[in-house]
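All the exercises in this workshop are built on plain-text protein records. The record below serves as our worked example for the rest of this section.
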Amino acid sequence: MSMYISTNLYNPGRLQEVFQLMDEIGDPSVGIELFPQWQSEVFCNELAKHMEDLMQYPISLHGPYYCTEHSKPEGTEEYARSMQYFYQTLQLSRRLKSKYIVYHHNNCLVEPERRDEMISVSTENLRKLRREAKHFNAQIVIENAGVLSRGNMLFDEEQFIQMALNMPANILLDVGHAHANGWNIGKVIAKLAHKIIAYHVHNNDGCEDNHNRIHEGTLDFAHFLACYQKHTPQADIVIEYGPQYAHDRNGIMQDVTYINKVLNCKQTA
């Protein structure tokens, strides 16, 4: 198991703050999950400035999210931009030796009458990207994206399980999204244990995608860790908090310590 801290914490011009956090955590085994924002010139400049710093850490990559929509078909402006952004992410993955890249089937609103079409298009686009990823020695993993409150949940619990079982790609389970959508997280983990290689962890009120700290919400995080330890003890854990916690370094360090303590205790019990 490896742990990563997501740069989802920081606005584009504040990327350097992740290195201050990493210094305070002081654990060389903790890595960074970089959340690329190719639509931002400020981010691109910051990325270039701190490339050598990033090379000092274990890295995973979130796929492009902003201005990106993989459920749009070839020939559309959205398709061209999404593919270009993902190609840039593949290049970055090779340079930083990223462990994996996260893929969202969709980010936009799901219109029920277009759902099947969206799945078909995004699945085909994923197939193209996985084929391209081989040239970069990159692994793409599928995340359960979208929440009911935003109207952008493409797969419900059973549909996600079946999609994951039928896909060759591995899975990153976002427990915050699953909780906001009312999923039985223990059941999903048990069903997909052989496919899950990582988790995004954060908490919420059971409805909105708040990206709160792990104990600030209605998700029973201790129960999640028990399920994790039982079924997927080798999977990575990515702390994916929102920008509201950018200044709370002490809180983030406490959560890293808590997770490590609970898991290490169970491993030695």
Notes: The radius of gyration is 18 Å. Residues 77-96 form the longest helix (20 residues). The mean pLDDT is 97.
